[in-house]
Amino acid sequence: MRTDIHHFLARMQLENEAGVALTDTRIRLLEEIGRYGSINRASRAVPLSYKAAWDAVDTLNNLAPEPVVARATGGRRGGGTQLTGYGEKLVAMYRALELEYQAMLDRLSVRLREAGACDQREFRRMIRRMGIKTSARNQLVGIVSGLIDGGVDYEVRLRLDEHNEIAAVITRASAETLGLAMGSEMIALVKSSSVMLAVDRDLQLTARNQLWGEVATVSPGPINSEITLALPSDRSITAVVTNESREKLGLAPGVAACAFFKSSSVILAFCD
Q1: Residue 132 has what pLDDT?
Q2: Which of these three, 133, 148, 169, is where a domain ends?
Q3: In sequence order, what are the beta bridge partners of 165?
Q4: Three-state SS for 216?
Q5: Are 169 and 53 within one domain?
Q6: What are phi and psi of 3, to 5 degrees?
Q7: Which of 36, 100, 27, 98 has its CA nearest to residue 68?
Q8: Do 147 and 117 lie in a common domain?
Q9: What percent of the chain has a predicted confidence (pLDDT) above 90?
Q10: Band of pLDDT at residue 174, cut at 50, 70 and 90
Q11: CATH code of the domain containing 35
Q12: 116, 133, 150: which is the final residue of a domain?
């Protein structure tokens, strides 16, 4: 919103229980990817850092029912990204909604100007308080495909796509609050610190959730590295591992790896 108390400028963002999903910046990123076919060039045009651009794409692909951006084999920094048909529709729908949103704000601005500046400032403060955010790095949308009543808790199976399914264990009270039912859509939240990585397919793991993919990006820090795996169907999952573990496992772009985490590490949110 502009600082002028007599006018609101639409800067729309769409949110769900997991936090912000669509913003003008992310839509502009999609538009630039459609224009250039390169996330490197698109991120510079927005502007965003290369890593922030990939993080945004991963989040959108994880939350959307279909991939918004498709990765091509090779060319991770020189190009190799393409806006899908679904991505084009998403951009068009967002821009159309934004026009309606601006028209509504223009009408609201007139009403608030008539009501007085004090009421308008109160309204602004209320809007700022309504933001919902989450610290969970991984946000995955899926359909409830299994419910096992364990007495005091439930095991919930969530089908992400035709390749991937994850399990979560929640209390009976939480299940009742969420109104869990077969076929309902949920968001699974998993902190990156709860995700571990393995590269040996013969390794026996006790973790309930095991998702195989290919290392897409490696972002090293002084002590830890952030590793993002590209899963089938253009979804992704991110883990934070020590630099020592990264080197020991040989984690680098293109390496096949398994992201595994306990069912108790999964938090479920309802998609309204």
Answers
A1: 39
A2: 133
A3: 159
A4: strand
A5: no
A6: -75, -20
A7: 27
A8: no
A9: 42
A10: confident
A11: 1.10.10.10
A12: 133
Using the structure block, give the residue that is written with the tokens 């006018």: 7
Same domain, 160 and 230: yes
- Please tell me whether residues 266 and 144 are part of one structural domain: yes
> Using CA atoms, how far apart are residues 207 and 271, in angstroms rounded to an integer?
26
CA distance 57 to 41: 14
The pLDDT value recorded for residue 124 is: 57
pLDDT in tens, 77-124: 444 789 999 999 999 988 888 887 777 767 766 766 666 655 556 655
- Phi, psi for 202 (deg, rounded to 5): -90, -5
Q: Could you give the 3-state DSSP secondary structure of residue 176?
A: helix
Which residues pair with residue 214 across a beta bridge?
230, 256
Do 248 and 152 contact (CB within 8 A), yes or no? no
Residue 30 and residue 87 in contact, taking contact as beta carbons nearer than 8 Å: yes
Q: Which residue has the tokens 């013969």?
A: 202
Answer yes or no: do 117 and 159 share one domain: no
pLDDT digits (tens, 9 = 90+) for 8-58: 555 566 655 445 567 888 999 999 999 999 999 999 999 888 988 998 898
User: SS3 for 129?
Assistant: helix
In 3-state terms the chain splits into helix, strand, coil percentages (rounded to 5) of 35, 30, 30
> Which residues span the domain enclosing 43?
1-133
